Amino acid sequence: MHVPVTIIGAGVGGLTLARVLWVHGIPSVVYEAEPSPTARAQGGMLDIHDYNGQLAIEAAGLADEFRGLVLHGRQAFRVLDRDGNVLFDKADDGTGGRPEALRADLRRMLLDSLPSGTVHWGHKVTGARALGGGRHEVSFADGSTVATGLLVGADGAWSRIRPLLTDAAPEYVGTSFVETYLYDAATRHPATARAVGGGSMVANGPAPDVAINAHRENGDTLHAYIQLTRPLDWFAAIDFTDPAAAATRIAAEFDGWAPELTALITDSDTAPVLRPHHTLPIGHKWERQPGVTLVGDAAHLTAPNGEGANLAMLDGAELAQALAAHPDDTEAALAEYEQAMFTRSAAPFDEALVMESLFGDDIPEQLAELFKDHDQTA
Ligand SMILES: Cc1cc2nc3c(=O)[nH]c(=O)nc-3n(C[C@H](O)[C@H](O)[C@H](O)COP(=O)(O)OP(=O)(O)OC[C@H]3O[C@@H](n4cnc5c(N)ncnc54)[C@H](O)[C@@H]3O)c2cc1C
After folding, report:
1. What is this structure's pTM?
2. Which residues bind NADPH per the record (predicted)?
3. Which of 54, 146, 176, 298 has the greatest number of CB atoms lying within 10 Å of its CB?
4. pLDDT, tens digit (0-9, with 9 covering 90-100), for 93-131
């Protein structure tokens, strides 16, 4: 096998790959565009599932460290209607299979588990080209290049490595989140804090094209994803450089909703941030190309469905395990990894299917019933 393995992107996928390789004694080098580990806030909480993300953490030998990061109580879940009535409410009794942790803490855990110097910060990849014989040359924004015999694109939705393998490109799915935060919620926004509860909350109206998702993060912070199914040019007409005007415009789509819910838009302590959802074609594949593969969103970006980070971590762990199992046959390792990854990422997710199946003017009630049914059969 060519070492060090060259990994592009220090997200959860790339770092899990680097860590599990290291556990198996295989060196790697990670090139990351961001200038430092703290250059960007890493977003909110991730629930790490026992059937994918937690398997990766086990493979990384970090189960104890992970347990120390879990935010207890955050697996509580409730469904509200737009008037703020609670239709479904499940407490966190500590037995759920989806413990929540902050993405920044997870990333820090993975970074701290790697030999120092593994991640080369401030290395934005601009492109890569095949040199023949399974070797590739990667180009960086500063004009430098690196040649490698084993290249892994872990560089997310807009991967610069993906074009080596496939022409597939992300497309807008028609829905976006607008992200907001409310700090010190119990004292400054008590009604909204009560509505969100101790974990996650989803509030739906009769129309399926808007919803409010929120969760309680560490401390007393509420983090909301305001969900709107609208074309991109609808959002383009909103001036997000004027936070108050943008919040007012978004809140207008929730006319008639309970004020403790719309406060998640109008009372945000941060400027609302637009997060359009993109996807690659579900189930797309590529022909095996020597010396290069992809993990995580670079391989199988989907609209957020609660699985993306979990799958990226599992991809990273399984690729590392395949390389460790075939030290003298990199192509066999890459083929084995890709076959399992393609199968996994082609499978539709229950959550996405359920949401697509809802229609009519009683969506909040349908959703609550679904969760009640699931709760009784789980
Ligand atoms: C709003 C939102 C909410 C989500 N919530 C959840 C959730 O609750 N649970 C869940 O499992 N998933 C969730 N996801 C999906 C999840 O964030 C992704 O699937 C996951 O982060 C993919 O991991 P990754 O390592 O493949 O890519 P990323 O996390 O995107 O990491 C890619 C890394 O590559 C770097 N990079 C990018 N381009 C370059 C370049 N040219 N050169 C060098 N480095 C580069 C980036 O800076 C980044 O560090 C959510 C997504 C969104 C948008």
Report:
1. 0.92
2. 40
3. 298
4. 777 778 889 999 999 999 999 999 999 999 999 999 999
Residue 188 near ligand 1, beta carbon < 6 Å? no
The annotated binding site is made up of 40, 47, 103, 297
Q: Where are the alpha helices (DSSP H) in 184-254?
A: 185-188, 190-196, 232-236, 243-252
Binding residues for NADPH: 40
Distance 59 CA to ligand 1 centre (A): 20
Q: Residue 7 above 60 pLDDT?
A: yes
Radius of gyration of the chain (CA): 21
Long-range contacts of 133-136 (CB under 8 A, 24+ apart): 133/290, 133/291, 134/2, 134/290, 134/291, 134/292, 134/330, 134/331, 135/291, 136/164, 136/291, 136/292
CATH class (in words) of the domain with range 5-72+100-168+281-349: alpha beta
Instruction: For residue 309, report the distance from its CA to the centre of ligand 1, in Å.
Output: 7
Give the distance (Å) from ligand 1 centre to CA of residue 297: 6
For residue 7, give the 3-state DSSP assignment.
Answer: strand
Supply the pLDDT for residue 361: 59
